[in-house]
Amino acid sequence: MTSIRATTFYGSGSRATVFLVGEIDADTAPAVGAAVENCLRRVTAVVDIELTGVSFCDASGLNVFLAAALDAAAGGRRIRLRHATPAVRRLFDLTGTASLLDAARNGASVPPSSSARRYIAGATGGSG
């Protein structure tokens, strides 16, 4: 059985970051969707979804992200997927959805902050 851990940090009233650690598949996608939906109810502008700790994502996860992006856009907000691992980025590339989800900007991204790396290392049992 796969698992996912979702933790949300709220910044100003207009921004938040959802940190995901684990695998996103049919078993865990509902939990990811619930975390993102809850965040969208509280945020007025941008929800960043930190994917550094996600080792796998299938079509179930992709559907969650696409639905969240549509919901966000309908409310004048935006979802941004950040720091996808190569395996996760491949899913976006193969499906042609990377640009729709803000998953990539010209193939480059800013590395996660030191606090994000420490959080993910702690959640996965690694060292930061």
TrEMBL record:
GO-annotated molecular function: anti-sigma factor antagonist activity
Domain annotation STAS: ranges: 20-96
UniProt xrefs under CDD domains: STAS_anti-anti-sigma_factors
InterPro entries: MlaB-like_STAS, STAS_dom, STAS_dom_sf
Highest taxon listed in the record's lineage: Bacteria
Stretches that traverse the bilayer: none
Pfam family, one: STAS_2
Protein name per Swiss-Prot or TrEMBL: STAS domain-containing protein
